[in-house]
Amino acid sequence: MIGAGMTERRTARSFAGPVGSAFAFVMTMGVVNLFADMTYEGGTALNGQFLASLGAGAAAVSIIAGVGEFLGYSLRSVSGYFADRTGRYWWFTFAGYAINLLAVPAMALAGSWPVAAAFMLAERIGRAVRKPTVEAMLSYSTGKHGKGWVYAVNTAMDETGAALGPLLMAAALSRGASFKSGYAMLLVTAALALAALVVARVLFPVPANLERGGPKTATAHGFTRAYRLYMIGGSIFALGVGSFELVAFHLTTTGVVTGPWVPVFLSIATVAGVVASLILGRLYDRLGIGAVVGAIAFAAGYPFLVFLGGFRAVLAGLVMWGVAYATQDTLLKVLIASVLPEGRRTFAFGVFYLGYGAGWLAGSVAAGFLYERSRPALAAFIAAALLASIPLFVSGARAARRVV
After folding, report:
1. Are 48 and 245 in contact (CB under 8 A)?
2. Rounded to whole angstroms, how far apart are CA atoms 257 and 250?
């Protein structure tokens, strides 16, 4: 259980009043993630163009993004396991954020696409180290505020930063800044994220205390059938989410959107994801699995617009892509949070992301090669993968209800 480590037990104390409330913790970590997302999503808005400028091809760009996401998801099971074993949850959180954030401005030092790729992979690895501990710590606040709403608010703040970061890069590029100058600017937002994380650690040394006075949020015994179905469904869903690096490569090389418009389009998609996260979070708390089904069915049309359409079609498609990301960042977390085993929360999130990362890697490799051969086939593949995940999530929800 989070807070079980000897180091953190020595600093354990209860907080009264609004500073110690569960929602205050959600908001504090939301500020951390706002600046964190400004940093690495600002970098994401440049990565595809930067790699292309260094001589990387479409397959290389897609595979690099896929390997990065695979590492970023699969290694969460490792960090989650050791975090649960050692109880040093905040240590893993700080280490992960430091690697995750500082690798982005380090891109300014890259002189070739393999070096840039190495920094991109480091950024994803850092995210893997800290992600399961953060998700598990947030789970302690869901009993009082609802799983859908807690993860929706945190995701909305994430995505607000993810919208602002690309806009910052668009403004820099429009004023004549180079890609390397843009990456260097993101050192400021990285520092702000780490400073906010220090505040979170001081105010909430033992997040497990947030569950006191409310319902238990982890009641499962081990990894249930519902958990396994959700994991398989997440892996299939990940096949079709797609990375913005490939989208940016497509927009740049085809001339549909050029220059500063590329990060602007990412920001528009991200804003759509912010709105969708808040709506879907509330809908899940009221409708349950129906919210997941509706979101996926809507998002499945995005690849046809993004990869086969013109300026306006791409814009509409990226709004739908934003809904797909809101589903990933809010609803899938909610599903897993509903079947967490007590004492292994961090590991459970990590194992789920292992399967998700494997699906993402396979999907990215397939997307890179399909893009170079047939864009209609790529669009069909992505849509089919998203829709194929729906029966698994529905079956998982039914299994979860039978347990209750």
Report:
1. yes
2. 9
DSSP string, 331-375: IHHHHHHTTPBTT-HHHHHHHHHHHHHHHHHHHHHHHHHHHHH-H
- Position 25, amino acid: F
Residues whose CB is less than 8 angstroms from the CB of residue 204 and which lie 6 or more positions away in sequence, other chains included: 15, 20, 25, 28, 210
CA distances for 248 relative to 68, 365, 393, angstroms? 16, 16, 30
Domain at 21-203+223-403: CATH code: 1.20.1250.20
In the chain, the amino acid numbered 187 is: L
Distance of CA 365 to the CA centre of its chain: 19
Query: pLDDT per position in the chain (404 positions), as tens?
Result: 444 443 333 333 333 333 347 778 888 898 999 999 999 889 988 888 899 889 888 788 878 887 887 888 778 888 888 888 888 889 999 999 999 999 999 999 998 999 999 999 999 999 989 988 887 787 776 655 556 667 777 778 887 888 889 889 988 988 889 999 999 999 999 999 999 999 999 988 887 777 665 555 545 566 788 899 999 999 999 999 877 778 888 888 888 877 678 878 878 888 888 888 888 888 888 888 999 999 999 999 999 999 998 888 999 999 999 899 889 888 888 888 778 776 677 788 888 888 888 888 889 889 888 988 999 999 999 999 999 999 999 999 998 886 55
Please count the CA atoms within 13 angstroms of the CA of 361 that sit on its side-chain side: 16
Which of helix, strand or coil describes residue 220? strand
3-state SS assignment for residue 89: helix
pTM as predicted:
0.69
Tokens of 65: 């993004």
CA distance 344 to 350: 10
Helices 179-203 & 147-174 angle (0-180, nearest 10): 150
Show the tokens assigned to 103.
């690798």
Closest CA to 36 of 237, 252, 191: 191
> In which region does residue 87 sit, left (phi positive, over 0), alpha (psi from -120 to 50) or beta (all else)?
left
Give the residue among 220, 161, 170 at the shortest CA–CA distance from 189: 161
